[in-house]
Design a protein that fits this description.
2% of the residues lie in helices and 49% in strands. The chain has 176 residues and is mainly β. Strands 1-2-3-4 form a four-stranded antiparallel sheet, with no helix packed on it. A four-stranded antiparallel sheet has the order 5-6-7-8, with no helix packed on it. Strand 14 (160-165) and strand 15 form a beta hairpin.
């Protein structure tokens, strides 16, 4: 990189931008904000294309499904929302997924599963097609984290799920 320069500043809210995900198929990106909404921007022009409403509090995490047909959003309201991208982000499903704020959503490398992480100290594994809860990973059952789980990374190396927590630990989980 010879030169690093700002290409464009986008200010679409008076509140914090919390998360971002790119959809190369539709050539757009989604941003979750602390004003409870998700804004969809054009990837080329950076113009605001759409405002997606439905959360009752800050949106902490956004993630497109591997086939880019759905956008998953979650945040302080502890709800996992699923939006149909090809139907102008029409609400598809709303799930009360955790007891407290959801900080991270991530898909498995093969796209068949996804995981959510929460302030409630739990990681939940979900079926990516049916949105059915398959497994709860917590301290009581699996020697999980003792405080809020802030971020997840699901690698294709041996299908390892990695979690980072306020308890100052990183946990590596083998998902079989």
């Amino acid at each position: 990189i010879e030169q690093l320069a700002v290409k464009k500043h986008l200010k679409a809210s008076e509140q914090s931008a919390r998360s971002i995900a790119i959809n190369p198929v539709e050539r757009e990106f989604a941003v979750g904000y602390s004003d409870n909404v998700v804004r969809i921007f054009d990837l080329t022009t950076y113009e605001l294309k759409r405002i997606v409403t439905g959360h009752t509090n800050s949106v902490f995490t956004v993630a497109y499904s591997p086939d880019f047909r759905f956008l998953l959003t979650a945040g302080r309201d502890a709800h996992l929302k699923v939006w149909e991208v090809e139907r102008q982000y029409k609400a598809y499903q709303s799930i009360v997924a955790h007891m407290f704020a959801i900080n991270s959503v991530v898909f498995s490398p093969d796209g068949t599963l996804f995981a959510t992480a929460s302030m409630d100290k739990a990681i939940k594994i979900w079926d990516a097609e049916t949105y059915r809860l398959l497994k709860v990973v917590d301290r009581a059952r699996h020697a999980g984290h003792g405080t809020s789980i802030n971020k997840l990374l699901w690698t294709d190396y041996e299908s390892q799920l990695i979690s980072a927590s306020d308890d100052r630990t990183i946990s590596v989980w083998k998902v079989a």
